[in-house]
Amino acid sequence: MRYRRALMFATTLVTMFLTTGCWDRIEIEQRATVLGLAIDPPSDGVEGVSGPYAKAAGPGFSLTAQVAIPGRIPLGPGGGSGGTSSSKPVWVITATGRTMDDAVNSLQRELAEKLFLGHLRVIIVNQSIAKSGALSDIQDFLRRNAELRRLAWLLVSTSNAHEAMDASPKLERVPTLYLVNMMDQAVKLGTLPNVFLGSYWSMLSSKAQEPVLPLISIQGKDQIRTEGLAVFNQDKMVATLDGLETATFMELQNNRRSGYAVSVPMPGDPAHSVTVRGTSRAARRELRINQGKPSFDVYSRVDSNIEEKTGPASLDPVIDQVSAELTSLVSQRQKALIQKTQSLGTDIFGFGEYIRATKPGYWKSVGTREQWEKIYKTMEVRVHPKVYVRRSGMAAH
Amino acid sequence: MNKPKTITMVQFAMNLGTVLIGVGILAFPRITVERADTGAPVAASIGIALMAGMACLLGFLGGKFPNMTIFEYGEQLLGRWINRVFVVALVIYFLALAAMAAREFGEVVVTSVLQRTPVEVTILIMVVLAASAARNDVAVFSRILTFYMPFVYVPALVIVALTLRSARLTNMLPLMSLGYQADWKNYGYAIVFVAALFQNMIITGLVTPYMYQSNKAWKGALIGVAAAGAVYVILLTSTLAVFGTEEMKNLLWPTLELAKTAAIPLFFLERLDPVFLAVWVTAVFTAILASYYFSIQGLAHLFNFQDHRVFTIVLVPIVFLMAMQPPNIVEVYRAVQAVGLCGLVLTVGFPVLLTAAYLVTRSMKKKQVKPA
């Protein structure tokens, strides 16, 4: 009985020490919460800390992090009690490294607190890095980090990415959160497809679909603009799509929310125009295989509203003509976009994935991504768009 | 010897449904997809059906011997010594299974949540927790499992529902991958691997004598395995639809990544992976408890002990040391798969053998009755 009591005592004592969870206790003031990361090529020498063997594609990276300063992040609407405008809620720091981890470690040397990536919302990559193919070396680090969320935005910037970290938009006190809001809204408005870090990964590793990523540009000091999409071939950026091409891409992808406006000349009055905004879209693809050659028919439908008309002519008699003109315009654009991707050999639409999914027997003869790229370049894709003008706003004619 | 009857059929079904969902749900989508590609959900269903059959056999036998556990009627059917060999093998095997589950649990926790906590501590706490819960009798054991059932099922399904936004149909097709992406050998491996995750269904043999209506045990077994199987297939299908086969092969724990992809547009619950992990810890606990409890009851039977409690603490260091054997994460998964597959010989073989023995003895008895 005495032994039993001693055993109980020992067990209690051990449990008390082991189950407190103190190992991973970390106060919020002790960690540097990174909200945004910008990755640029290094402007001059690279200072790595992980030893001479750290190597990635290219000379290395210059990493700029936007770190939240505890206590200065406004909580809730209205910006809280708010400090003065001189106390910025974030701190921007830069470090270089030969690999991603190397750069992060060297960033850590500039900070007393431990870097925490659990709230990382935006990663911006300079397009010169995206074009060099170093993105695959960047994404591996992100993939292994357990804190990171898959829903973070991965963006490509046309100029230096670190400028986006420095920018201080007027509508939101935390620049990164403004950027996040901007991307979320773009998806809601239907101007950008919902492609985030996780979907980039899925497409990158898929058997026959090339990834796209949102493209932004930084203009002046405080202005950030969405430009469209960056098109990738595996991990190398090969082209960009502008706004209207992005709209066309989304039409072909069955992306239901539509938010682009497009103008056509007024029927019978080429000096004036009618501007129409898409409201909803739908697309369906059909695969045919003829003598071992695949071809696609893409049927798409766009519902739209008239947003503006210039000139005096009345709209009522020509409304059918407007939709016919729009249909032919959309048809041209779709053909042009498909041709563009075919000449690049990048199947961003996932036609190959569709074949793999629905005709596995045929896909077996295709086999590899490289082989599919070859077939895609000469594959016939017929487009059958239909644009309907449904409403014309509050004006009667 | 009569046993106290406290467990209803529905309760038994809930128990099975809880113990079958264990640590494996995080990694199994990757392992099955590596082998069977897009055919994985179908392969998994076949494996689950196989184990549902085994659980039914045990339920059927439980109905025929309404006052005996699997160890006791095994003795009657196979003879004392043959049965002992099997019980020893089962005891060792389920200890190893508990150890592997504890290790896999520790690896997940150290990698994704408590990065500075030593893995030994996480494992030890889980094993001690299971051991202390295993001190109860079967009625309480069953009630513990029943209690946790909704905590395991509801959040898992909610998370799946929240991720379906990024699901894509083309990722799931073709449904039958055999001949296109997977050959017989790999496809078979996927089936067997999923079946190996359902080995805890052996507790059917332990619980049936405590049921009010042992003759309905097979029904409860079927419902329980089907419910757990549904969760497995749903998780597999949704990870597949969201990530696609090739991306899944890059993810160590696709189910956890799925939880990371889920988001409710509410600021304080923006991340759901902590919720999911909390749920998963309960699921792991119940699964380890079941394996451990089965082993202990087996030992108690072997040594003719009335009280199984003596063994609960004695076995903790053994399980802990077994769990600490693999040196790294690659070896952990090699060991988990090896242990799971080897055990299948035992967990499928034993019920089949028992049923065969039962049928043979029954037909022999009938023959003896006839001439008289």
List keywords for this structure.
heterodimer; A: 397 residues; alpha/beta; nine-stranded mixed sheet; four-stranded mixed sheet; 12 helices; 33% helix; 30% strand; globular; B: 372 residues; mainly alpha; 16 helices
Short description:
The complex is a heterodimer of chains A (397) and B (372). Chain A is an alpha/beta fold and 397 residues long.
Description:
The complex is a heterodimer of chains A (397) and B (372). Chain A is α/β, with parallel strands linked by helices. Chain A is built from twelve helices and 13 strands. Chain A has helices at 2-18, 100-108, 127-132, 135-144, 162-166, 175-189, 197-205, 243-252, 319-344, 351-358, 360-366, 369-378; strands spanning 31-40, 61-68, 90-97, 114-116, 122-126, 153-157, 212-219, 223-233, 236-241, 261-266, 269-290, 293-309, 380-391. In chain A, helix 10 (351-358) packs across helix 11. Chain A is globular, with a radius of gyration of 26 Å. With 372 residues, chain B is mostly helical. In chain B, 74% of the residues lie in helices and 0% in strands. Chain B has 16 helices and no strands. Chain B has helices at residues 9-19, 28-36, 40-64, 70-78, 80-112, 119-133, 138-163, 169-172, 184-196, 204-207, 217-243, 245-248, 254-261, 273-302, 309-323, 329-369. Chain B is globular and about 65 Å long. The two termini of chain B are 30 Å apart.
The low-pLDDT segments of chain B are: none
Portion in strands of chain B: under 5%
Instruction: Tally the beta strands of chain A.
Output: 13
Q: Give the C-alpha Rg of chain A.
A: 26 Å
Low-confidence stretches of chain A: 78-85
Through-space gap between termini of chain B: 30 Å
Order of helices and strands of chain B: HHHHHHHHHHHHHHHH
Q: Topology of this structure?
A:
The complex is a heterodimer of chains A (397) and B (372).
Chain A: H1 2-18, E1 31-40, E2 61-68, E3 90-97, H2 100-108, E4 114-116, E5 122-126, H3 127-132, H4 135-144, E6 153-157, H5 162-166, H6 175-189, H7 197-205, E7 212-219, E8 223-233, E9 236-241, H8 243-252, E10 261-266, E11 269-290, E12 293-309, H9 319-344, H10 351-358, H11 360-366, H12 369-378, E13 380-391
Parallel strand pairs in A: 1-4, 1-5, 5-6, 6-7, 12-13
Antiparallel strand pairs in A: 1-2, 2-3, 7-8, 8-9, 10-11, 11-12
Chain B: H1 9-19, H2 28-36, H3 40-64, H4 70-78, H5 80-112, H6 119-133, H7 138-163, H8 169-172, H9 184-196, H10 204-207, H11 217-243, H12 245-248, H13 254-261, H14 273-302, H15 309-323, H16 329-369
Helix pairs in contact in B: 1-7, 1-11, 2-3, 2-9, 3-9, 3-11, 3-16, 4-5, 5-6, 5-14, 5-15, 5-16, 6-14, 6-15, 7-11, 7-14, 9-16, 14-15
